[in-house]
């Protein structure tokens, strides 16, 4: 019987494949009650073997450390060995196995929770932070206990004949980066929101994805046939042949319509009435440029540089970053490339070890020391990146985009660091193209409410609607339970967007939108009607937006756009939006 699981549509397209249920070892742990005394002994033995395996692994890691490894790394591995040898971790779970007659995995989870609760109560912050070490150790022991039953990330995108549909509780942006070369056919996750970075990556990879599908990772069994309809936000598990056939037909039709769109690649982008519009591309890595060239973007409006820093333990050097930025600038052959400075934090986390700075964990990750705040607190990291971006400017037009700006001090400090980076390069005799325009993301409500603060100091603005909506409506963009409240058409959001576009026009400063809203064809005409001239979207969405622009006459939508902007009533907004799309 077909099981239909509904979630949030984040990346359209249709995929048909076999489910690969992927999980961390500590997620969805089997919980068994033991009946025979010999089972208790055998569980305790299994636990001892797992602990021994992890201790051996830690010893081997220490023995293989390269000579230039900072001493802290060795010390951390040693600390992990000591923690694991402590009876609280290495013995107490076995006591629980015996007392409660439960399997080793279950006992380990109970003991982890006990220990975490004890650590939470400790006042000393250093000791409290050892919580994370315990979690990592438990995960290692759990992996060893569960062995092959924990599915690793797939090495390739297919399982024999069929492609994989990856099903997981959650997939971090860093994991997604690892999966990008493995051509997985689709993603289905238990949690997540439409503008989480995992969703954004799925969209940029053009892979159908549905998130926020409650219990998908427990309800779907490994190897089951799955049809994912990304646009409808549905995953059909174990579908009938007739359903599969219907989806194969839909998939073929979609492929045809994509081919048809491809013909628009070289058509100049303007509205029917002749208003010239620019369509820029959003990228995460230089590898995305192939797709950007295929759709004929006018420039790169958002290079999310933080993705260069993921899935590695060290920070990329100035030269390494310079190579990445220059490769994008060279590929664009004279068209503008906008590099956003490091926007780390919230769901974009690093793997760095204790020897390297990283945004500290925060009780509220969206509001912590992230993004530009982290860069200003870590000038060495910031200056290294600024020098690399400035150096890339000799190969073509480059702009620097500052994320999460919320006050004048951040603007001034950032400009000071940019001036300092230029000076450092000049002292070394390295060439740069001067001036390099500097712009700010409008994504914190404070920035959108104090536009003169930005227009007086910045060369351009780019609206990050993903964060702006999150902060204006107080909706966590990665939390599926409040995803239904994530509303780009909320009057407060529309007012801030309209104010920003108007302020830019009055000050003679280009304004772009680079959040997911810019790639949503349902709002393209509304944004055109507000006067937006530059959209920055994923390459996979660019031709769809272009098609709408090419069919729009601004005079035909003017009145309805005015109605959307003047009302607070969602029903009236819906009516006016329908008039805009029918015009
Ligand atoms: C945004 O917030 O809209 C944006 C473009 O940046 P990011 O999605 O990387 O936070
Ligand atoms: Mg943002």
Q: Can you tell me about this structure?
A:
The chain is α/β, with parallel strands linked by helices and 583 residues long. The protein has three domains: 3-23 and 156-259, Phosphohistidine domain (Glucose Oxidase, domain 1), CATH 3.50.30.10; 37-146, Enzyme I, Chain A, domain 2 (Orthogonal Bundle), CATH 1.10.274; 265-582, Alpha-Beta Barrel (TIM Barrel). Helices cover 48% and strands 14% of the residues. The protein contains 23 helices and 17 strands. Strands 1, 2, 3, 4, 5, 6, 7, 8 and 9 form a nine-stranded mixed beta sheet that branches. An eight-stranded parallel beta barrel has the order 10-11-12-13-14-15-16-17, surrounded by five helices. The model has no long low-confidence stretch (mean pLDDT 89). The protein binds phosphoenolpyruvate (PEP) and magnesium ion.
The set of bound ligands, ions and cofactors reads:
phosphoenolpyruvate, magnesium ion
**Estimated helix fraction:** 40-55%
CATH topology of the largest domain: TIM Barrel
Unreliable spans = none
Spatial separation of the terminal alpha carbons: 44 Å
Number of DSSP strands? 17
The major β-sheet equals: 9 strands, mixed
Strand residue content: 5-15%
Give the overall pLDDT as a whole number: 89
Domain count: the total is: 3
- The coarse overall form would be globular
């Amino acid at each position: 019987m077909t099981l239909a699981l509904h979630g949030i549509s984040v990346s359209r397209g249709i995929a048909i494949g076999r489910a690969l249920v992927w999980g961390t070892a500590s997620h969805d742990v089997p919980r068994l009650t033991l009946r025979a005394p010999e089972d208790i002994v055998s569980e305790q033995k299994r636990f001892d073997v797992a602990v021994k395996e992890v201790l051996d692994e830690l010893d081997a890691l220490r023995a293989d450390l390269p000579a230039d490894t900072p001493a802290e790394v060795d010390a951390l591995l040693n600390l992990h060995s000591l923690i694991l040898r402590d009876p609280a971790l290495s013995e107490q779970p076995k006591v629980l196995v015996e007392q409660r007659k439960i399997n080793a995995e279950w006992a380990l989870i109970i003991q982890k929770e006990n220990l975490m609760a004890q650590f939470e109560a400790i006042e000393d912050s250093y000791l409290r932070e050892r919580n994370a070490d315990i979690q990592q150790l438990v995960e290692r022991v759990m992996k060893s206990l569960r062995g092959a039953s924990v599915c690793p990330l797939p090495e390739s995108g297919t399982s024999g004949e069929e492609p994989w549909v990856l099903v997981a509780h959650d997939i971090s942006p860093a994991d997604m980066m690892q999966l990008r070369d493995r051509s997985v056919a689709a993603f289905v996750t238990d949690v997540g929101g439409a503008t989480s970075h995992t969703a954004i990556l799925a969209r940029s990879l053009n892979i159908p994805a549905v998130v926020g599908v409650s219990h998908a990772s427990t309800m779907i069994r490994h190897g089951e046939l799955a049809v994912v309809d990304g646009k409808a936000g549905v995953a059909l598990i174990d579908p009938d042949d007739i359903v599969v056939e219907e989806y194969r037909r839909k998939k073929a039709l979609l492929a045809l319509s994509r081919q048809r769109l491809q013909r628009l690649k070289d058509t100049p982008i303007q509205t029917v009435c002749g208003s010239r519009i620019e369509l820029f591309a959003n990228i995460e890595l230089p590898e995305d440029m192939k797709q950007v060239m295929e759709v004929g973007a006018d420039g790169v409006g958002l290079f999310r540089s933080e993705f260069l820093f993921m899935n590695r333990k060290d920070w990329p050097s100035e030269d390494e970053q310079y190579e990445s930025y220059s490769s994008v600038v060279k590929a664009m052959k004279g068209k503008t490339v906008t590099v956003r400075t490091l926007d780390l934090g919230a769901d974009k986390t690093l793997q760095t070890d204790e020897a390297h700075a990283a945004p500290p964990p925060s009780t509220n990750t969206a509001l912590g020391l992230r993004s530009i705040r982290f860069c200003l607190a870590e000038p060495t990291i910031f200056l290294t990146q600024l020098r690399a971006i400035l150096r890339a400017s000799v190969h073509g037009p480059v702009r620097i985009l500052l994320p999460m700006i919320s006050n004048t001090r951040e603007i001034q400090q950032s400009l000071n660091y940019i001036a300092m980076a230029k000076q450092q390069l000049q002292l070394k005799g390295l060439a740069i193209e001067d001036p390099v325009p500097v712009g700010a993301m409008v994504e914190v409500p404070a920035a959108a409410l104090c536009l003169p603060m930005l227009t007086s100091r910045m060369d351009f603005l780019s609206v990050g609607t993903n964060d702006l909506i999150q902060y204006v409506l107080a909706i966590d963009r990665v939390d599926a339970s409040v995803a239904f409240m994530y509303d780009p058409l909320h009057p407060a959001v529309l007012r801030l967007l309209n104010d920003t576009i108007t302020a830019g026009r009055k000050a003679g400063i280009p304004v772009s939108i680079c959040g997911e809203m810019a790639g949503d064809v349902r709002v393209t005409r509304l944004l055109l009607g507000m006067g937006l001239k530059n959209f920055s979207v994923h390459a996979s969405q660019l031709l769809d937006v272009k098609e709408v622009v090419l069919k729009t006459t601004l005079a035909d939508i003017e009145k309805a756009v005015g109605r959307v902007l003047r009302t607070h009533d969602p029903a009236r907004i819906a009516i006016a939006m329908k008039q805009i799309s029918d015009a």
